[in-house]
């Protein structure tokens, strides 16, 4: 039923609605520069009108309204753009970290340059060629020794720099794992708050903005899948490179299901469930991060790649947030480990996570690639030591002597070492006496330089460098004949120089690919972010326009209060005077 008091209530609702809208606008303006903030809108709707005519309700011309109400306060957000920004950001961060460290590796090798290994190899072969032409020259022998020392130092220095880079990457992985665990905890807490507010009938806009910002940051570390649940809750999955659908569950509504840990020093047993259910010991050697585990024994055949792994924790404070071991040449990457471990309990690994993208994927791939470059340097150093020592000493192994003086040119330990590039050096006897350099066939000081010439010819001699394990392998590969001081290039092999050049070429291609992908992804992500900003960002011009609109509406409603006041005064006081 209409009347002045009903009109007053309509005006009151109108003022309250406009005031709420102005409050939302002021909140938008205040957060114009807040990272992750989405612009909010007060959605108005007409309040419930007077009911249909009935015995208790008089028939009136038209259904009379009762004013306005604030239906909801919502944020402007495009979930489609969020999905693609996170997806492309994961790819971008993967290649950004690859570009950063691949460029560093290129700087380590400094190729091409006057101080790079390629130039040092050229100088080394040139020195032997010069000695072959003048085997009695002390100056030429000194040139051979000094160039050999420079080459050894160059290879060893590059190897040690790669080791340092591995440690830096491991530290970065550890820090990012700490960050990921913190983000997962914050998202889990926000999930609880968001669900509580939603159940209460309100929209937790600011809380959801905070959660979305954390999801954006999480997507920088690895690719994620998000599943919406009741009351604005979400589940988070780590997207697996094996394309598991939906992936490894990390956060479920309001709890962390799986987390990441970094383990420093542990002892464990690997149990073979496939062959005969026997156990065998394995030890961890922690020389650098990530941890490396080597199997010390085998049982009745090969170890299956799929096995259960149980880790016993003695000191929970030592539990960190990354765990990386090698088994059978395979790598158990970031592990899915149960949280809330008590001292004496076990951590059981059930499904390793192979990240499909993100900075952790990039760092993980770099760990393997740096290890490959170290292996290639080891192959180079080992091949160089075996080939030169075989010809220089005339020995088919470390004990048997043929026609030369039997002195190795390089330290023979290099030939069987897993860190050949790190320890390569010239033999101590060569360091002590230049006359121990064998330039001639018979190993004497006087001769025609045949042995030095043969060593110099290694520059262009192809042999099976990758499969080279012993001097016998080298002799067989090049058909080395000590009597004639001849060898034959093996067409199925490669030269030492070309092997190194191929390594540098591979590095260059990888880095160029990373640079290209970073440029493309940055352009794509920037465009997507601009589109999201147009939807979710705060436009001060638009807010000022809206402010004037609601301000005028508020003023008009206030004016209606004055009109109603005059009408009530007329009705009450005017009638009394009459």
Strand tally is 13
Helix content: 40-55%
- The total of helices stands at 12
**Envelope shape:** rod-shaped
GO molecular function: structural molecule activity
Pfam families: Flg_bb_rod, Flg_bbr_C, FlgK_D1
Protein name: Flagellar hook-associated protein 1
Subcellular location: Bacterial flagellum; Secreted
Task: Set out the fold topology.
Elements: H1 4-30, E1 40-46, E2 68-75, H2 79-109, H3 117-133, H4 138-199, H5 205-221, E3 224-228, E4 234-238, E5 248-252, E6 255-256, E7 268-271, E8 279-285, E9 292-295, E10 308-312, E11 325-327, E12 330-332, E13 346-349, H6 359-393, H7 420-423, H8 428-432, H9 450-456, H10 471-478, H11 496-536, H12 540-577
Antiparallel strand pairs: 1-2, 3-4, 4-5, 5-6, 7-8, 7-10, 8-9, 10-13, 11-12
Helix pairs in contact: 1-12, 2-4, 2-5, 2-6, 2-11, 3-4, 3-9, 4-5, 4-6, 6-9, 6-11
GO cellular component, one term: bacterial-type flagellum hook
Family: Belongs to the flagella basal body rod proteins family.
Domain Flagellar hook-associated protein FlgK helical: 102-239
